[in-house]
Amino acid sequence: MQKFKTAMKTMGPPKVEVPSPKDFLKKHSKEKTLPPKKVFERNKPKKPPVPLRTDHPVMGVQSEKNFINTNAANVIMGVAKKPKPIYVDKRTGDKHDLETSGLIPKHINKKDYGVTPKYICKRNEEVKKAQEEYDNYIQEKLRKAAMKRLSDEEREAVLQGLKKNWEEVHKEFQSLSVFIDSIPKRMRKQKLEEEMKQLEYDIGVIEKHKIIYIANK
Asked: Which of 29, 116, 129, 180 is the most buried (most CB within 10 A)?
């Protein structure tokens, strides 16, 4: 019972992948593999030879350089090392590098700061060219679809033509039989009435307006 409770102390029983029966422990499977064998050369020298007993080091070599004066001159004539710029952002004195903090305006001091990139200039030129082509296309469409004004002679000719058509339709209407006793006669009469009504409307519009514009096709 205690063993079962111990397994349940986490978020339920532990889910452990059951090993496959094929992955059984094989003989010599846990033995460490040795590195590859190196060829040993007995005649190859490993270290420099030991100096002989009769060899003596060079003695009495002295330098005339005054290291104290040289060091003092280097310190006096040298440029003082500038301290690394830092900033403190807490009252406890935490120091941070000022150059990588973003507080120093580096980008505005660049030579190409504020200069429009070349790819944007190229894109603006392409957009401008496309806009000009579109404007020219629209202007051409408007020019082709522009309204044309009818002259007085043309207006009078159209008006006389409409009146002539109305007289012909009216004459045909007057020639109808008095008794309309069939569907074809009724439909014929209705059609002639509609034509006369439309012609009367067109004649009235042209007589009312002295200046008339028509669209070019």
From this structure: 180
Q: Which amino acid is at 78?
A: G
Sign of CA dihedral 71, 72, 75, 76: negative
| pLDDT value of residue 216 | 66
Contact 202, 162 (CB under 8 A): yes
- pLDDT tens, 171-211? 888 888 877 778 888 888 889 899 999 999 999 988 888 87
What is the predicted pLDDT for the residue at 6? 62
Q: Are 163 and 193 in contact (CB under 8 A)?
A: no
Count the Cβ atoms, other than its own, within 10 Å of residue 169: 19
Work out the burial of residue 162: count CB atoms within 10 Å of its CB; fewer than 13 is exposed, 13-18 middle, 19 or more buried. Answer: buried
- Rounded to 10°, the helix 152-174/183-208 angle is 160
Instruction: Place 38 in a pLDDT band, splitting at 50, 70 and 90.
Output: confident
Could you tell me which residues are beta bridge partners of residue 86? Answer: 97
Q: Which residues contact 84 (CB under 8 A, 6 or more apart)?
A: 97
Give the Å distances, CA to CA, from 140 to 144, 146, 177. Answer: 6, 10, 55
Instruction: Give the count of beta carbons closer than 10 Å to the beta carbon of residue 195.
Output: 17
Residue 213 DSSP code: E
